[in-house]
Amino acid sequence: MVNVKIDSVYFSLKEEHNFSWLKSFGKVFAVFAQNDSGNISFGVDNGEEKYFIKVAGLKTTESVRTQQEAIAALKAAMPIYEDIKHKNLIKLVKHYSLGEIYVAVFKWTDGDCLFDPWNFEKYKKNPHVLPPAKRFKQLPISKRIESADVLFSFLDTVSKNGYVAVDFYDGSIMYDFARNTTTICDIDFFRKKPTLNDMGEDYWGTKRLKAPEEYVYGAVIDEATNVFTLGALLFDSFFGNYTNAEVRMRYEMNAFTPCSFENWEISKACYDVALKSVSVERSERYASINEFCTAWKAALFE
């Protein structure tokens, strides 16, 4: 293990790397080194602009991939960011090979990731510090509804651009509590339509939110799958409340379950719309994000 210090940040790698190339972007003020994707990312400030720089090809401590797999995945993700244009998606600036690594440069966006496992140890040691997910749940309902609107708009844009969202979860969402803005920060695994589950039970995604077909080898993954994902997010991260035991049960059973209406924070009409979106049978869900959005907005105003 190698301990690394760049400017004011510290992190570890399995092997040394010369980071002198980072200096051309400015001063490093943040690092995200504990991802299992094989990537390591930096926040960099040159005094005029801030950048989020994602790097593949280094021997990171938590990676479940080889360096070559991480590079191939990051390269493959770049056209997705170029194809999907949405005001709440992080902006890709450039990407390129640099020796044995691959670099993707994005404009920096302020905010906190709604799922941030790299900080879990900090929360354990400092129980008075609330994770972003809990802070988000304490926002007024109106602010959470505005944030949910962003997800509806974004996923509709994804579909209209010929893609399906894959591995889209609370870790893909950032919220700026100072400005009350929502940013989509990670779409690396999105796929062009049509696509199938080619991994079986290990298909990308968290068991807290995955649709039934995301466990079945050869199953169609499409907009109805994204309807389920968004509905699950509305339950899990926005308006529903679960015990730790209920969350654990999803992992054990390989199945998302909606919370009871008693543990839902907004109207029965909205609950019923969200419930339809997470139907086990695909044919019982809304056929599109747009149809889901129309029903959701109507329920909000009932």
Automatic annotation (TrEMBL):
What GO annotations for molecular function exist for this entry? ATP binding; protein serine/threonine kinase activity
Spell out the Gene3D superfamilies in the cross-references: Transferase(Phosphotransferase) domain 1
Which ranges carry the Protein kinase domain? 14-301
Is Ion transport one of the keywords UniProt gives this record? no
Keyword check for Transferase: yes
Source taxon at top rank: Bacteria
Keywords, A to Z? Kinase, Serine/threonine-protein kinase, Transferase
Q: Which InterPro entries match?
A: Kinase-like_dom_sf (IPR011009), Prot_kinase_dom (IPR000719)
Q: What is this protein called?
A: Serine/threonine protein kinase
Tell me what organism the protein belongs to: Anaerocolumna chitinilytica
